[in-house]
From TrEMBL:
InterPro entries named in the record: Formyl_transferase-like_C_sf, MPG, MPG_sf
EC nos: 3.2.2.-
The protein's name in its UniProt record: Putative 3-methyladenine DNA glycosylase
Pfam families: Pur_DNA_glyco
Superkingdom assignment: Bacteria
Enzyme class: hydrolase
Keyword Nucleotide-binding: no
Organism: Thermanaerothrix solaris
The family this protein is said to belong to: Belongs to the DNA glycosylase MPG family.
Cited NCBIfam families: 3mg, PRK00802.1-3
Statement: the UniProt record of this protein carries the keyword Zinc-finger: no
Coiled coil location: none
GO molecular function terms attached to this record: hydrolase activity, acting on glycosyl bonds
Keywords for this protein: DNA damage, DNA repair, Glycosidase, Hydrolase
């Protein structure tokens, strides 16, 4: 399947953050294996005026990718220990990005389990740093083209997410940002009904009923 085209990333960043829900994030390993999951949580960061955005202090070596073409991966290191993945959005020179906060794994589960060893399946990819660890995403992928068919990291078309599945709220982890930016409703979360997990081909052990059963057994 071909990745989403560059034009997908030219809409306003909040629109792209919403539209990325349900798309398939794919990491292609050197041996040809795929590690993938459906995107279920995103946050929008909108350029130099957005005081929660890395671009708010202007262009730096760290955030330079944000000022480049749309559809590139902006991968940054944080807290001295974690990588986070963003998709660059908007025309070149206008820095904006969507943070990929969570996915539902659907391919390469054995390798994902190894990458997240010691954690239950429900915690494999329910945070931005966890997504990167699970899919083996690090700084070497910073700047890679998410829209190129031969890229090691792409976002492919996935499944439509109806509006009534989506929760919208304030972004998290940005206490440093002043208002109104701290409270902007730019976080988007897809809450799948139980019946949707089968349609999305999510493995049974990752579905809510399986997690509930395990919790009752403990």
């Amino acid at each position: 399947m071909r990745p989403l085209p560059p034009e997908f990333y030219l809409d306003p960043v909040t629109h792209v953050a919403r539209a990325l829900l349900g798309q398939r994030l794919v990491r292609r390993l050197e041996d040809g294996r795929r590690l993938a999951g459906y995107i279920v949580e995103t946050e929008a960061y909108d350029g130099e005026e957005d005081k929660a955005c890395h671009a708010s202090r202007g262009r730096t070596p760290r955030n330079a990718v944000m000022f480049g073409p749309p559809g590139r991966a902006y991968v940054y290191f944080t807290y001295g220990m974690h990588w986070c993945l963003n998709a660059v959005v908007g025309p070149e020179g206008q820095p904006a990005a969507v943070l990929i906060r969570a996915i539902l794994p659907c391919e390469g589960l054995e390798q994902i389990a190894q990458n997240r060893a010691g954690h239950p399946p429900a915690e494999w990819t329910n945070g931005p740093a966890k997504v990167c660890q699970a899919l083996q995403i690090d700084g070497r992928l910073n700047g890679c083209d998410l829209t190129a068919a031969d890229s090691p990291l792409v976002i492919e078309p996935g499944i439509n997410v109806p509006q009534d599945w989506i929760q919208v709220g304030a972004r998290v982890g940005i206490a440093y940002a002043p208002e109104p930016w701290r409270s902007m409703p730019w976080r988007f979360i897809a809450h799948l009904p139980v019946e949707a997990y089968a349609t999305w081909e999510i493995p049974a052990f990752l579905r809510p009923e399986a997690r509930s059963k395990k919790a009752r057994e403990r």
